[in-house]
Amino acid sequence: MVKHPIILAHERRFNGCRGRFFQFKGKKESEEYEAVFQFFSKLKGSNIRQKSTDRRIELVIPKEEPKWWPRLLKESTKVPWIKINFDKWSDNKEEKDDEEEEEGGVDKLFQKIYRDADDDARKAMAKSFSESCGTVLSTNWSQVGAQKTEVKPPDGMEFKKYDE
User: Fold this and answer.
1) What is d(CA 12, CA 125) in angstroms, rounded to the nearest whole number?
2) Residue that terminates a domain, selected from 95, 114, 149
3) Same domain, 118 and 86
4) Measuring CA to CA, how many Å separate 48 from each of 12, 61, 110, 146, 155?
5) pLDDT digits (tens, 9 = 90+) for 85-120
6) CATH number at residue 64
7) Containing domain of residue 108, as a range?
8) Which of 8, 12, 60, 141 could be joined to 124 by an S-S link, Cβ 3.0–4.6 Å?
9) Is 77 in the same domain as 111?
10) Mean of per-residue pLDDT scores for the chain
């Protein structure tokens, strides 16, 4: 028998999206779970972005028409087995920021770390990176400020200066 448990959508496996319907199934031990959502309006099922880790799956399912919905689902009554995590909710601006971050890769990640760091962490990053010829990046000023940062090439690599 299929059960309807309390479901956080980012914790289950994605199975499909068509029109305004979204369906996924999950299994834990011998228990099978299934959920079918009928959203307020149509979705772009071909444009789904998925991010998976060992602990969760995040889905971004764009609307077919980018207009405001008064609620998430077609039904106006509260469905007791669905919970929306508003900490994970994003508007269009946040989605654009996420897309830009994904496109930038590692460079954007380091820029964000530097931008969000305090002054000591920024000094540590600049000093460790320059003294190690780009092989070390640290945010710990108490450690980096006390001594010279040594060059640490990746395993199996050898560091050589250009003038050698």
Assistant:
1) 39
2) 95
3) no
4) 15, 5, 27, 49, 39
5) 677 666 655 555 555 555 667 788 888 888 899 999
6) 2.60.40.790
7) 104-164
8) 141
9) no
10) 76
Give the Cα separation of 27 and 50 in Å (integer): 19
Place of tokens 């008064």: 70
Residue 79 · residue 39 · CB < 8 Å: no
Let me know whether 79 and 140 are in one domain. Answer: no
Look at the alpha carbons of 8, 14, 15, 16 in this order and tell me if their dihedral is positive or negative: positive
Angle between helices 92-116 and 119-131 (to 10 degrees): 70
